[in-house]
Amino acid sequence: MPVRAFTVKEANALIPHLEGVLREMARARDNILEQRGKLGILNTLWGDEVRREENPDHAEWRERHRTIEEQVRRIELLIQEGIVAHGVRFPQGGLEHGLLDFPSTWHGRWIFLCWRLGEPQVAYWHELDAGYQGREPITPEQGREMGRRGAAPPSGSGPFEV
What we know:
alpha+beta; four-stranded antiparallel β-sheet; 4 strands
């Protein structure tokens, strides 16, 4: 998929959709954590014996593993179809911290517009290699220019990969 350069306005228009996707992902993550906790109890009670079909808690153990696998697949699908398919980057820490990056351009180079769940709009940006810690506020002038002036598409996927 070719990399798209978002304007601040275009990124902000996607926020309501992305908020829903991230909240659904958080619910799936919470379900995984709950299932893992319950598996921990079963493993503490039974050890490796819980894996034996004769064990009275084996069916529950197996069902909790199945639920975890389903929720992991759900998160992967949400990332691909709900985020990446829209041209948005899902950075490391995206699930834990609700972070998303929108590829953009500014002064002829590629940057990321940076948004975090709970923020009302995209108000920060950072260099490709800076990450969340390198976020800087978007000035009104930058906001008008970002994503509007062309920059050569990045070679390969590099930092634009999920």
